[in-house]
Amino acid sequence: AHTLPFPARAAYAEDGTYGPDRVHALAFSPDGRWLFAGTRSARVVRYDLAGGGAVSEWKAPGQPGFLAVTADGTGLIGQCLNTVVRWNAATGAVEAAADADDKFNGLAVDPGTGDLVLALGSVLARAPAGAPAAPRPTPAGDPGRVRHPAVLPGG
Asked: 145, 135 in Cβ contact below 8 A?
């Protein structure tokens, strides 16, 4: 086992309570070099596993509930309440952000296509990598439920 340092701070939770910071989401880069942690204090912490666990961190627009790394490892996508953000995985710079009407229940990046797959309530929506169009609901989904879907450029 390997212990990684976690920046100590207090934070507000979505329910308004105040307490110690916690990890809400984790994602590994495809090559295993980085581990990303989304925290209760609305931060993303990147651990450089190849470089001995060195830490860098950046502010998120809300508590990251889900994180996913793009198939090529260059982007980190996070769900922060009703906002989906794509950061540069190496620098933490925001590359794109989009809001949606509904709170996301989950997200994933399709490693084969680079498409972003979003869970919005009972709907799964697919945002094609780099496409300026709305996500395509799955056959079981309700196309009317996705009113202002988030679409991020790049895959």
From this structure: no
Query: pLDDT tens-digit profile of 58-93?
Result: 999 988 888 999 888 999 998 887 788 889 999 999
Q: Residue 150: which of 108, 96, 111 has the closest Cα?
A: 96
Q: What is the pTM of this model?
A: 0.72
Q: For 31, how many CA atoms within 13 A lie in the half-sphere containing its CB?
A: 10
Alpha-carbon distance 61 to 140, whole Å? 31
Question: Where do we find the tokens 């920046």?
Answer: 7
Neighbour count for residue 68 (Cβ, 10 Å): 22
pLDDT tens-digit map of 89-100: 999 999 888 776
How far apart are alpha carbons 153 and 132 in whole angstroms? 7
